[in-house]
Design goal:
The complex is a heterodimer of chains A (332) and B (277). Chain A has 332 residues and is an alpha/beta fold. In chain A, 30% of the residues lie in helices and 19% in strands. In chain A, the strands form 2 sheets. Chain A has a 7-stranded mixed β-sheet. In chain A, strands 5-4-11-10 form a 4-stranded antiparallel β-sheet, with no helix packed on it. In chain A, a hairpin with a 2-residue loop joins strand 2 and strand 3. The longest helix of chain A has 20 residues. Chain B contains 8 helices and 15 strands. In chain B, the strands form 3 sheets. Chain B has a 7-stranded mixed β-sheet with strand order 10-9-8-7-11-12-15, with helices on both faces. Chain B has a 6-stranded antiparallel β-sheet with strand order 4-3-6-1-2-5. The longest helix of chain B has 13 residues. Chain B folds into 2 domains: 92 residues, Elongation Factor Tu (Ef-tu), domain 3; 132 residues, Nucleotide-binding domain of ferredoxin-NADP reductase (FNR) module (Rossmann fold), CATH 3.40.50. Chain B is α/β, with parallel strands linked by helices and 277 residues long. The chains are: A alpha/beta (332), B alpha/beta (277).
Chain lengths: 332, 277
């Protein structure tokens, strides 16, 4: 289906009016962020990419998983937290959209994490194909592309004239287009902008075999020296899912929360005895790479990286996952 | 959808002071239907919580052969455990579990069992010990080697006495040099050395080891010398955990989640893992 820019504006504004929160990239102090919007005009799809990925709308950075109150005799009354609201995300990048089902593998194997599952079921993702990338992008090296539709409910591609071609990928997406079908027209002969994406920068197939054999390799120490363990790479990553669980309470009531954590922190693995199996930053850096490119593929048959480049773009110590992977390719 | 993070409520029925900083709670489920259906295997663990403070991971220290309650033993070492230590009989705590794999007790049938533990590492081993003692005829010789830093650090003191009195249990208890008292009737020495002089046979035997990493490190070569095969040496890992369900990523070591594929591993399985436990 095809939609003109004017109709797209109306489409989004109608969605906002329908009462469901609509989240899209907006500009804030020269930075970009996924935030709930009040009007189409706030949306800005240009570079730079949103600093934080859209992950927080699926795996909340801070989420109540249980409420409870204390009775007079110390008895505990537990209460389930409210269900998450339906949400529409517009202007999500194809790499980020692809990250949602990849991350779902860990939240749905063996037992179901309802907090992720419910958001995944309720959120509607409208992805817009990339027309540009920056030096840190490497989606094409991890099997994705600016036209990858994984994880999208509706996929949009801009045409040469500024209209958009919209494809309903899932039933959820198709139904939404159907509901607003007066704003869409049949595809004309207009071609979408065919942006090929960043050039392929390394060979993914060679990464895992090397990691399997080189847990102990001098490269790990050398390459991780600048790391200050701030965790920005994991917090901005659309696919890093590790979380902590904490309680907060007053004398009368309290709640248990699930919140983002990072394997880059010393406290992440320290035992009650004080023993820490990953006692230096080099080991913690190695864990991030091994987890994404070796352990996760083993367990869930998918690389835990979509090539969005955020871990490189925002690293205060100029460390580069991309450089690491290229180095691994050279060592192979 | 079920909330997998929602705990069961349990009432503290009994509190035992094990040492100056370690306590054992005997716990019962408040919900009668849960109490009835609850079952676990020796070696499994749970997430025990203090509402308002958070959760801590402890093994279930009682034996599955003893129904109707569970026990946990903890040392004061952080926010949750320090808070738990203030609790009284009748108070309510949260429990999620049982989680993880178990010691394959069925496989030990007809074999000698050597239990080796240090300090609070006796807690998970104690669950297997009672499990095996309750089914005593299934096993051959049972040897327990247990050591702690000092006499004051020994846990389950009453049970150590009980095991001493049992004719079909060989208990070797020890404290580190300098940790003995005048009336100490056990050995003085480190666990690996005490084990070496106790000389249990590695033939048709399994060894279950739990204690500080340094103890395990020096115990493994001794077991090798005694003729134990790596696949007959079991241990339980203590990696930091939060969810216990293979989600939060914390206990990930190589290709396994300790909370799912573990916490019980054989020495042979550990050899295949990166040394991050």
């Amino acid at each position: 289906m095809q939609i003109t820019k004017t109709n797209l504006e109306q489409f989004i504004n109608e969605l906002i009016k329908s009462g469901k929160p609509v989240v899209a990239p907006i500009r804030e102090n020269n930075l970009s962020a996924y935030k709930p919007i009040n009007s189409f005009n706030q949306i800005n799809l240009d570079l730079p990419f949103p600093t934080k990925s859209a992950k927080e709308y699926f795996l909340a950075d801070y989420e109540k998983i249980l409420s409870y109150s204390f009775g007079e005799k110390g008895q505990i009354e537990m209460k389930e937290p409210d269900q998450p609201k339906e949400l529409i995300l517009f202007g999500v990048r194809p790499c980020e959209a692809a990250s949602f089902p990849i991350m779902n593998k860990v939240f749905s194997w063996d037992s179901q994490d309802k907090f992720y599952q419910e958001r995944l079921a309720k959120n509607l993702v409208i992805t817009v194909a990339c027309e540009q990338s920056d030096d840190f992008c490497f989606c094409t090296s991890v099997g994705l592309s600016p036209q990858a539709t994984d994880g999208s409910d509706i996929f949009m591609r801009k045409t040469q004239t500024g209209d958009y071609l919209a494809e309903g990928i899932t039933d959820k997406g198709k139904n939404l287009i159907e509901k607003h079908k007066d704003l869409f027209a049949e595809n004309s002969n207009e071609k979408p902008i065919d942006y090929k994406g960043p050039e392929k920068k390394f060979d993914l197939k060679k990464i895992k075999p090397w990691l399997e054999k080189n847990f102990e390799h001098p490269m790990w120490n050398q390459i991780s020296l600048p790391c200050i363990g701030c965790g920005v790479c994991t917090f901005t990553c659309p696919n890093c899912y590790c979380f902590d669980m904490v309680d907060e309470a007053t004398l009368k009531e309290g709640a248990r929360y699930k919140m983002w954590d990072s394997c880059q922190f010393r406290m992440f693995t320290v035992h009650a005895s004080g023993h820490n199996p990953r006692d230096n930053q080099s080991k913690r850096f190695r864990q991030r790479i091994e987890h994404k490119f070796n352990y996760y593929p083993d367990k869930f048959d998918h690389t835990l990286c979509v090539g969005c480049g955020r871990c490189i773009r925002h690293c205060p110590a100029d460390m580069s996952l991309l450089e690491t992977l290229i180095t691994i390719n050279k060592l192979t | 959808m079920n909330n997998i993070y929602k705990p069961h409520l349990m009432t503290i029925k009994e509190i035992t002071d094990e040492t100056y900083d370690t306590k054992t709670f005997k716990l019962e489920f408040q919900d009668k239907s849960v109490a009835k259906s609850f079952d676990f295997k020796t070696g499994q663990f749970g997430e025990f919580s203090v509402f308002g403070m958070g959760e801590s991971t402890f093994c279930i220290a009682s034996a599955p052969t003893r129904k109707g309650y569970i026990e946990c033993t903890f040392r004061k070492s952080g926010r949750v455990t320090n808070s738990l230590a203030e609790f009284d009989v009748g108070d309510t705590i949260g429990f999620r579990g049982p989680y993880g794999n178990c010691f394959p007790v069925d496989k030990f049938k007809g074999k000698n069992i050597v239990f080796i533990s240090g300090g609070i590492g006796l807690a998970p081993i104690r669950s297997v010990i009672w499990n095996c003692l309750d089914l005593r005829k299934n096993f051959k010789d049972i040897t327990i080697v247990y050591g702690a830093k000092t006499v004051a650090d020994l846990i389950y003191k009453r049970e150590l006495e009980e095991w001493t009195k049992m004719a079909d249990v060989n208990l070797v208890k020890a404290v580190d040099p300098g940790g003995e008292t005048k009336d100490w009737d056990g050995k003085v020495g480190l666990v690996p050395m005490v084990l070496e002089s106790a000389k249990p046979t590695g033939k048709n035997s399994v060894a279950l080891v739990c204690g500080p990493p340094i103890m395990i490190k020096f115990t493994l070569p001794v077991l090798d010398k005694l003729g134990f095969d790596l696949k007959d040496i079991y241990t339980t890992l203590e990696n930091r955990m939060k969810c216990g369900l293979g989600k939060c990523g914390r206990c990930n070591v190589g290709k396994v989640y300790v909370c799912k594929e573990g916490p019980v591993f054989t020495a042979q399985q550990l050899k295949a893992l990166p040394a991050e436990y």
